[in-house]
Automatic annotation (TrEMBL):
Part of the SCF (SKP1-CUL1-F-box) E3 ubiquitin-protein ligase complex SCF(FBXL7) composed of CUL1, SKP1, RBX1 and FBXL7. Interacts with AURKA; interaction takes place during mitosis but not in interphase. Interacts with BIRC5; this interaction allows BIRC5 to be polyubiquitinated by the SCF(FBXL7) E3 ubiquitin-protein ligase complex. Residues 1-37 are annotated as: Disordered. GO terms for cellular component: centrosome; SCF ubiquitin ligase complex. GO terms for biological process: cell division; protein polyubiquitination; SCF-dependent proteasomal ubiquitin-dependent protein catabolic process. It comes from the Eukaryota. Keywords: Cell cycle, Cell division, Cytoplasm, Cytoskeleton, Leucine-rich repeat, Mitosis, Repeat, Ubl conjugation pathway. It holds the Pfam family F-box-like. Substrate recognition component of a SCF (SKP1-CUL1-F-box protein) E3 ubiquitin-protein ligase complex. During mitosis, it mediates the ubiquitination and subsequent proteasomal degradation of AURKA, causing mitotic arrest. It also regulates mitochondrial function by mediating the ubiquitination and proteasomal degradation of the apoptosis inhibitor BIRC5. Pathway: Protein modification; protein ubiquitination. This is F-box/LRR-repeat protein 7. CDD domains: F-box_FBXL7 (cd22120). The keyword Repeat applies.
Length: 449
């Protein structure tokens, strides 16, 4: 496992993916027997390409029946590659150890557009180093085919692993490192600076990440031509709870092409941060600020500046938002399709009325735990939003069966209705079922089945 052995042009072992004591792996070799639960740490190993023929005397004694079982070898190369394309990274590495033909097919560049590694015990830094080195065999120092790296949940990923990706994968378009809490801003800066085509970045749960920006060197080098811009369109920073308004300001100034932004449980974000966001990122279609408790109606006024471009908005559990904020959204964002306002207790029937009359193309609405919404609000929805497919009224204390019947009689395309913890009768639920044949009803009434 020394650096010298890493220089051999050979196949990474499945030990890159599985710990040595995992099922199907014993003593560094594949095994058909199962072992105890996964223990120990994953080790990166390299092996030479398999020989063309197996020369073990026991194998030469194989029966005719056993030889006939290898019909897969009769398939042409393009069919084998198509089969291999459905395998995850770890299984593809295993296939490369079967024989020389499989080795060559398994390392076909077309199969390595994506690397997907999972597991808390995997030595993911080492795995990425070995895999990228092997993929750079034909194009020294760069993996021109690799476009997607998904290592979500690999808690042992560190900045070293991201540095490897940044240095070797200039064509990277998608990176998911959610739950990898050991990575820092510096490593993320390197990735976005050295991978100019990166469009999709998921750093949710990475608590040390407080900003997205170019490195200082890249900023100086690119500013005359690119204006310090980053091409990211999809950014998920859910649970990056250290993110503050200043960090969001920097993100907005650098990532002006954002169309999808998720800031769930970024509890330090305020209306000021949203003001920065709307100055630079005018193309946002989907935005989530759920559980951002400092966001208020003033923040909704800023978000409303997106106008008809906004299609998805989640403001769940933002307790400072009232009918005033909903009215801003309803007035300017007429093409809104999805709204999650669960737990916004300041919303009343008046807010639902504004929404229903202006956002008539609404397809999904969650107003659960809004105790001031009653059957009156549901009537406005039913008479204006005929395309409604999903409606959640969980824990709405003022909702009755009469309101549900009005909705069911007008919204025939309803596919999901959540009335858990609502005082609605069995007859009302049966009425919904009769009129909305495809509707799945989530309820807590034991008499309805």
């Amino acid at each position: 496992d020394s650096d010298l052995s890493m220089r051999t042009l050979s196949t990474p072992s499945p030990a890159l993916i599985f710990p040595p004591n995992s099922p199907g792996f014993q003593n560094g070799r594949g095994s058909s027997t199962s072992s105890s639960s996964i223990t120990g740490e994953t080790v990166a190993m390299v092996h030479s390409p398999p020989p063309t023929r197996l020369t073990h005397p026991l194998i030469r004694l194989a029966s005719k029946h056993q030889k006939e079982q290898a019909n897969i070898d009769r398939l042409p190369d393009h069919s084998m590659i198509q089969i291999f394309s459905f395998l995850p990274t770890n299984q593809l590495c295993r296939c490369a150890r079967v024989c020389r033909r499989w080795y060559n097919l398994a390392w076909d560049p077309r199969l390595w557009r994506t690397i997907r590694l999972t597991g808390e015990t995997i030595n993911v830094d080492r795995a990425l180093k070995v895999l990228t080195r092997r993929l750079c065999q034909d194009t020294p120092n760069v993996c021109l085919m690799l476009e997607t790296v998904i290592v979500s949940g690999c808690r042992r990923l560190t900045d070293r692993g991201l540095y490897t990706i940044a240095q070797c994968c200039p064509e990277l378009r998608r990176l998911e490192v959610s739950g990898c809490y050991n990575i820092s801003n510096e490593a993320v800066f390197d990735v976005v600076s050295l991978c100019p085509n990166l469009e999709h970045l998921d750093v949710s749960g990475c608590s040390k990440v407080t900003c997205i920006s170019l490195t200082r060197e890249a900023s100086i080098k690119l500013s005359p031509l690119h204006g310090k811009q980053i091409s990211i369109r999809y950014l998920d920073m859910t649970d990056c709870f250290v993110l503050e308004d200043e960090g969001l300001h920097t993100i907005a100034a650098h990532c002006t092409q954002l169309t999808h932004l998720y800031l769930r449980r970024c509890v330090r974000i305020t209306d000021e941060g949203l003001r920065y966001l709307m100055i630079y990122c005018t193309s946002i279609k989907e935005l989530s600020v759920s559980d951002c408790r400092f966001v208020s109606d003033f923040g909704m006024r800023e978000i409303a500046k997106l106008e008809s471009r906004l299609r998805y908005l989640s403001i769940a559990h933002c307790g400072r938002i009232t009918d005033v904020g909903i009215r801003y959204i309803a007035k300017y964002c007429s093409k809104l399709r999805y709204l999650n306002a669960r737990g916004c207790e300041g919303i009343t029937d008046h807010g639902v009325e504004y929404l229903a009359k202006n956002c008539t193309k609404l397809k999904s609405l969650d107003i659960g735990k809004c105790p001031l919404v009653s059957d009156t609000g549901l009537e406005f929805l039913a008479l204006n939003c005929f395309n409604l497919k999903r409606l959640s009224l969980k824990s709405c204390e003022s909702i009755t069966g009469q309101g549900l019947q009005i909705v069911a009689a007008n919204c025939f395309d309803l596919q999901m209705l959540n009335v858990q913890d609502c005082e609605v009768s069995v007859d009302a639920l049966r009425f919904v079922k009769r009129h909305c044949k495809r509707c799945i009803i989530e309820h807590t009434n034991p008499a309805f089945f």
